[in-house]
Amino acid sequence: MKSRTRLAWPRIASMVGGLLVFLCAPPLAAAAEPGAFFVTSVAEKKLTALPSGILYWRVETFPEPEQARAAAAVSATSLTATVDGKAWLFTLGPMGGATQGGTKVAEIGPVPRITAPEYLLRINHAGGPPGAKTPVHSHPGSETFYVLGGQVTQRTPDGASHAEAGQSAVGHGADMPMEVSSSGGADLNLLVMFVLDATKPFSTPAKIE
Asked: Element (H or E) spanning 42, and its range?
């Protein structure tokens, strides 16, 4: 009987140890729901001041990510990200600019200005299958869209606007309730550029009355 008890202890200790590992392990990331609208932050930067004058988002591509990173390093209002296998550079500034070595894809604006103690520039990659949509929400600043594929619809209290692949759209100003959806016949593939008040929540639930 004693022999059996001694043999059981290692097994009990192993089971207890396994239980502790399970309980202490970090939770697994939840899998994305099929058909859901996805949003992924790919770049961001904080600033204490914005450039003066009327502002536009300049969207450019580069042959290699290293070239885009080098260009972003010398500009306070530039961000870079690799999306869909391409090296992108996003620059907030006056209309008509160009970055050496880059290919201009779009120049989008004017971007609605805000006043804040600190600013957040952020680039999101977003989209989803036809019918996918975000909850109604608002941001403490402006957002600008460039559509890589599919069709985007932005619904606000002012109505709905649409943009197709290869087109862009300037979002509304701060605190505008909105719903963004994939409204075409193909999956939406979208780049979103933000200028926000960095001291406020990035996104807030809202209602469209």
From this structure: strand 38-47
For residue 76, what is the DSSP state?
T
CATH class assigned to 30-205: mainly beta
Give the chain's radius of gyration (CA, Å). Answer: 23
20-58 burial, b at 16+ Cβ within 10 Å, e below that, comes to eeeeeeeeeeeeeeeeebbeeebbbbebeebeeeebbbb
pTM as predicted: 0.83
pLDDT at 208 over 60: yes
Task: In whole angstroms, give the CA distance from residue 189 to residue 204.
Answer: 23
With bands split at pLDDT 50, 70 and 90, how would you rate the model's confidence at 34?
A: low
Cα separation, 63 vs 34, whole angstroms: 33
Phi and psi at residue 58, in whole multiples of 5°?
A: -100, 125
Domain residue spans of the chain = 30-205
For residue 79, give Cα distances in angstroms to 41, 67, 115, 117, 206. 12, 12, 21, 20, 29
